[in-house]
């Protein structure tokens, strides 16, 4: 029988112990990676159900055209015409990561924001840029002045 090389045996045991540590570490890391954080708050996920565009504007459009006109500064027919006119320029596609804001909602946000900006400028001594910086921010989406410029036509 050949003599046992204790040094080689010790090295093998050390390698085996290192491999076990690597396996334990990778399992722990995988478990840690699975614990996802919430990327989007529930209030923003419910925007399609609870948001102003999907509730208030629909009710105003169907029930009170005068109030719709007061809110959007145009009739529902004018809003639809304008939406059809600018849709190819502002429409974006949905992805598997997020659903896109519709062109009508983008238009409503932009019109409402510009209307509030003009009102703020007229009420105060601010310049339009100062008023835009201090006016309300759109929550849960991209502010209208940050919408990407479309140079291509949607296919």
UniProtKB/TrEMBL annotation:
Chain residue ranges for the region called Disordered: 129-155
Compositionally biased intervals (Polar residues): 129-140
Superkingdom to which the source organism belongs: Eukaryota
Protein name: Uncharacterized protein
Protein source organism: Rhipicephalus microplus (Cattle tick)
């Amino acid at each position: 029988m050949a003599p046992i090389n204790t040094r080689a045996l010790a090295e093998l045991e050390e390698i085996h112990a290192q491999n076990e540590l690597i396996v334990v570490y990778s399992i722990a890391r995988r478990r840690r990676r699975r614990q996802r954080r919430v990327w989007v708050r529930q209030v923003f996920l419910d925007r399609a159900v609870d948001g102003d565009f999907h509730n208030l504007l629909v009710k105003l459009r169907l029930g009170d055209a005068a109030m719709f006109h007061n809110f959007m500064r145009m009739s529902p027919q004018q809003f639809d015409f304008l939406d059809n006119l600018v849709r190819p320029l502002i429409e974006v596609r949905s992805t598997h990561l997020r659903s896109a804001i519709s062109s009508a909602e983008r238009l409503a946000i932009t019109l409402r924001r510009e209307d509030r900006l003009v009102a703020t400028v007229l009420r105060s001594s601010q310049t339009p840029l100062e008023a835009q910086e201090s006016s309300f921010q759109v929550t849960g989406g991209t502010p209208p002045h940050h919408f990407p410029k479309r140079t291509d036509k949607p296919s």
